[in-house]
Amino acid sequence: MTPSTHWIVGPGALGRLIAHRLAGRVPVRLLGRHRLPARQTLVTPAGETLIQTFAMTWLDTLPRETPAVVHLTTKAYAAEEVHATLAAQLPSGVPLVLWQNGFACQPALTERHHGPVLCASTTEGAHVQADDRVTHAGHGHTYIGALDGGHTERAMTLARTLSEAGLPAEVVDDIRLRLWRKLAVNAAINPLVARFTIRNGQLRDRPFRQMVERRIIEVSAILDAEGVTPPGGGGMQDWRRLVWQVIEATANNRASMLQDVLAGRLTEHEAILAPLLAAASRHQLPAPCLAQHLLDLRIRAEKLAVPPTLC
Length: 311
Hints:
Blueprint: E1 6-9, H1 13-22, E2 28-32, E3 39-43, E4 49-53, E5 55-58, E6 69-72, H2 79-87, E7 96-98, H3 105-112, E8 117-122, E9 125-130, E10 133-138, E11 142-145, H4 152-164, E12 169-171, H5 175-196, H6 208-226, H7 236-249, H8 256-262, H9 269-282, H10 288-303
Parallel strand pairs: 1-2, 1-6, 2-5, 3-10, 6-7, 7-8, 11-12
Antiparallel strand pairs: 3-4, 8-11, 9-10
Helix pairs in contact: 5-6, 5-7, 5-8, 5-9, 6-7, 6-9, 9-10
């Protein structure tokens, strides 16, 4: 029998959003290390309430079925450890989809996984309200591709499945570029809203607007040196346009890093800021604002009394 079940590993906000949207079209199983109610509620952007009952499995004791695809939707800092647990139990050849922010775990897991690996870069917005309730805060778009440009047929099948389920997706052959672009936008927005506990739209106001502009200058210089271009192919003006477009489109959103700070969780600061600062170091470029953010978030991580939530 051909495998058909989609495994969602790391059922946080994004994981449960994907599960809800896929349910009814393909079999879905949620896997994690924390017990969640099988009966789950999704609140749509239109305010509708959708209820689904999911098969739940402990990550350490995988079912005997072979999944059609594994969606790894943990936070970036947990992805490699969770994958190691999975890899010890999964048969070779199972496709893996990485949904992490930043650009830290994707290259490592692409090399490590014994099967096709696709990366997803999404602007879908979601946040957790309770263990049994997730809000789909805003519609977005998802780009899918392999870092080496391969596995096109698998990527097209997945993009079609997601699109039919209400999560518009398309296949691209430059997913590495898409991941860097999202990282750049996140670096200009997320640390600021997390530090000042504000929604994205408040960055348009004083004194935050000037702070955003300083970070755009740093990010633009770094990515220009790396050969990473913004949409439009220009320089800093196009990076500025992209960042402010995202801020306008997500004005009422609470960024994922802010959600983590408010919940007392670790943030994805390493996956978002460390690759940029490593590139800045390679090109001997100053990035004092980004460096200060990373230092502050590392200090916060050391002070957290709770261990990292892996999934």
